[in-house]
Amino acid sequence: MKNRFIAAAAMPAALVGAVNNGLARTPQMGWNNWNTFACDVSEKLLLETSKLLGDYGLKDLGYQYVVLDDCWSTGRGDDGYLVPDTAKFPEGMGAVADKLHKEGFLFGMYSSAGEMTCARYAGSLDYETQDAESFASWGVDYLKYDNCYHMGRMGTPLISFNRYNEMAKALKKTGRSILYSLCSWGEDYVHTWGGSIANSWRISGDIYDSFARPDDLCACNNAADPACVAPGTHCSVLAIINKVATFVDRGLPGAWNDLDMLEVGLGGMTEEEYKAHFAMWAALKSPLLLGNDLRKMDATTLSIINNPAIIAVSQDPKGRSAIRISRNLEAPIDEHGVGETQVWSGALANGDQVVIFLNAADEDVDMSATLSELFVMHGPGGSAPHVKQDWTVRDLWGNEGARMSKGVAQAVLDATSEGERNGILKRENWYNATATPYAEGLEQGDARLLGERVGTVKAGGRLEARVPRHAAKVFRLQSASGKTGTAKSSLKDEL
Ligand code: GAL
């Protein structure tokens, strides 16, 4: 079978994502203030947060971008350039960038392709050149570019493309490497053109801290729905997953579907729901931007966001999203009328495969999928060579070789000195992607990235698991023969 994914991978890099700025070869990771702090921003908040990202070992797991969202300026000066709010950023934005860079972080900022930002601060529409110059002169590494107050310049893919392309060109002209992250909420089929000019593009209205509750403020469930004119601000994890499901294949190294910032640790979901949210964002290759208050983080939250076996799926060098191979809408429904289960499967580097059983039904469910279904992307009807071999199954939330225990996470949070904290992380032998990038760790078969071994699926067999209500089981399948030959031979088959 000819596979679009493989064909794309074989293309010269310059053709894959015309932005071609060498950034986000794996989905970007970091923190953004919006989900918790909205407009309550300051240099102090950014620096306190970055300090904790470093202290807790999160920077060394890949969370490197510290992104300031809306509400940072006082408007535009007479010279046409944006003026930072010195009550919030006393030494200006360049000083923030310098301080973050000194600690090994990258600095992200925000504006809107409109006359105003969504919180009604000055926007960049028709000031793209000046604003890109400012961002570059301040040492900014990342721009989140929103969609509010676009003055009617939307309605067809081309109109939106042109509006967003102005900033792409202006950023490029500065000569500085700036990751370009579109936030047009899926409007005007951004997934069909975003990859030509940007490193990521939001595909939905704003996420809110709910696993599955439908809300009229997130009415756009289907990207192709012509009536979808207000993507909204109350999109659940499940609504976003269901929206992106039909075009997950648009994500490629350097250019990703953005499922919005993480809600893990904000308090509106259960632990199992947050684990499912985090794992789905990783497997669907969304950027992983934390949205919680790190100064008040609990052990449960830390032990979700610092799971290297899940992050390794996100940062896998193959750079392909898992795809949904089945969906069951007959599952028991909750009081909102929501109830479904889904099976997702995706190819990883070295011939491995990630499989997710997602249970959004109102009770625990026994779920299963045959190898023939799980490897359908390599050939339908059981024709994939992968079906004819045995697979070792590893649980990526297992306690061995994956998730940090809550006791240890609490000790990391409670440590009173850097030495004590580093000591704990060292004793636990916690993964450090600064020292060993994920691609290298995976190539070496580093056990910390592979999860806990829980069983085998024999050739022609079926993977089965009981999945609690509102939870996901996340597995890495590895060839039981220990060879990665399967992947290579199938790749040949497909080309
Ligand atoms: C929304 C955007 C949010 C946040 C907010 C700021 O449009 O989707 O992520 O940036 O604006 O006002």
What does this structure look like?
The structure is a single chain. 29% of the residues lie in helices and 18% in strands. With 495 residues, the chain is of the alpha/beta class. Strands 9-8-7-6-5-2-1-10 form an 8-stranded parallel beta sheet. It has a 6-stranded antiparallel beta sheet with strand order 11-12-13-18-15-16. The chain has a two-stranded antiparallel ribbon with strand order 3-4. Helix 5 crosses helix 6, helix 6 (157-174) packs parallel to helix 7 (190-197) and helix 9 runs parallel beside helix 10 (299-305). The protein is globular, with a radius of gyration of 22 Å. Mean pLDDT is 92; it is low at 1-16 and 484-495. It binds beta-D-galactopyranose. Residues 34, 69-70, 117-119, 146, 148, 183, 206 line the site of beta-D-galactopyranose. It is found in: Secreted.
What are its keywords?
495 residues, 6-stranded antiparallel beta sheet, globular, disordered N terminus, binds beta-D-galactopyranose, secreted
Describe the secondary-structure layout.
Blueprint: H1 4-10, E1 29-32, H2 34-37, H3 43-55, E2 65-67, E3 73-76, E4 82-84, H4 92-102, E5 106-112, H5 128-138, E6 142-146, H6 157-174, E7 179-182, H7 190-197, E8 200-202, H8 237-244, E9 256-258, H9 271-283, E10 288-290, H10 299-305, H11 308-314, E11 323-328, E12 341-347, E13 353-359, E14 365-370, H12 371-374, E15 391-395, H13 406-414, H14 418-427, H15 438-443, E16 452-457, E17 462-467, E18 471-479, H16 485-494
Parallel strand pairs: 1-2, 1-10, 2-5, 5-6, 6-7, 7-8, 8-9
Antiparallel strand pairs: 3-4, 11-12, 12-13, 13-18, 14-17, 15-16, 15-18
Helix pairs in contact: 5-6, 6-7, 9-10, 9-11, 10-13, 13-14
The structure holds beta-D-galactopyranose.
Subcellular location: Secreted
Family: Belongs to the glycosyl hydrolase 27 family.
Main location: secreted
